[in-house]
Amino acid sequence: xxxxxxxxxxxxxxxxxxxxxxxxxxxxxxxxxxxxxxxxxxxxxxxxxxxxxxxxxxxxxxxxxxxxxxxxxxxxxxxxxxxxxxxxxxxxxxxxxxxxxxxxxxxxxxxxxxx
Amino acid sequence: xxxxxxxxxxxxxxxxxxxxxxxxxxxxxxxxxxxxxxxxxxxxxxxxxxxxxxxxxxxxxxxxxxxxxxxxxxxxxxxxxxxxxxxxxxxxxxxxxxxxxxxxxxxxxxxxxxxxxxxxxxxxxxxxxxxxxxxxxxxxxxxxxxxxxxxxxxxxxxxxxxxxxxxxxxxxxxxxxxxxxxxxxxxxxxxxxxxxxxxxxxxxxxxxxxxxxxxxxxxxxxxxxxxxxxxxxxxxxxxxxxxxxxxxxxxxxxxxxxxxxxxxxxxxxxxxxxxxxxxxxxxxxxxxxxxxxxxxxxxxxxxxxxxxxxxxxxx
Lengths: 115, 315
Known about the structure:
The complex is a heterodimer.
Chain A: E1 8-9, H1 13-22, E2 25-31, H2 38-47, E3 55-60, H3 67-70, E4 83-88, E5 91-97, H4 102-113
Parallel strand pairs in A: 1-3, 2-3
Antiparallel strand pairs in A: 2-4, 4-5
Chain B: E1 4-10, H1 14-25, E2 30-33, H2 59-72, E3 76-78, E4 83-87, E5 93-97, E6 102-110, E7 114-116, E8 132-133, H3 136-139, E9 147-151, H4 155-164, E10 170-174, H5 184-191, E11 196-199, E12 202-209, E13 213-220, E14 226-230, E15 233-236, E16 240-242, E17 272-274, H6 286-314
Parallel strand pairs in B: 1-2, 1-6, 2-3, 6-17, 8-15, 9-10, 9-15, 10-11
Antiparallel strand pairs in B: 4-5, 5-6, 7-16, 12-13, 13-14
Helix pairs in contact in B: 1-2, 1-6, 4-5
């Protein structure tokens, strides 16, 4: 079960571990193919070419292994899809809930990972 | 990329993509500039069940197919950018985007669409995704056995209020008027649902909470009385506003900020057309957007051909 995007797909706990261990800067969008999630995937696909120092990935929210995102302390008050999590050196540095614009995403990327 | 095109379309929703398909197929060089996600409001639709010839399709799939069709005919698409300046008068129009790139064309089709109206009360942005939602099908399951408010009195508000009773223990519809604008069958359905109650002639003036939404301030509009209501979630369905802020003072808009067009989708400026949810019209559907986009493209193609013919005569 993977999302219909051109991003790197995380489909299991092992995939998740591998992506955040093997990349210094990671943005993971955990959602469904729904109205609030698609615009975020779309922004990420566009930013992949601009931010080559960042790994952009998605993860299906309903996959059992997505608990690795759903159960994060940083996401405990979230009630809007998608849950988007930013990792630096394997640690969560930022998380957002619900739809985000390109400006909101780039602002976080610049702040957390530098340009 | 050469920055001059026959036509520039601003907006890549159903209207803009349709115009892109028609123009590109007619060998009119076309650039679509889009501020958000390609597909516009269409991608916000989980299922489109009334698009003729297609039994069931998600808005995302339909938009993606339209985008691929446009590209296959040679249409160029740039998205997730900001249009910072427009010069629409004269034979050559120009459009500048946020990285200072400028594009020129003989014609411009404005298909900027609309966006969900927000309440605009303090705390709304802060609690988006932490109790405030604009999509019942996306976020309804986060409110299992919770008490929620649905704001609005139109078809979407009442239909979604009923659908949210699958999850929530109690749904309170808060509406600013003393009656609903929704079709009668939607309001009847809501009124007979035991989980739904109503607070009329009332608006939310503040969203409050700590890390997540916990309560709202309600104002009874006729009396001005304020009260606090503890709540787990608020779903907002109060209609759409046209994306025409940047066009004020440039192009003729009506008092609702919708672009005024004639039946050929021509605006008050020669060579500038408009289509889709940003124009004055009663019904905002994918099918009407597609129809607008078709008309705008065909009339625009005629306009461009005439300009080119005149130029050849002069040469």
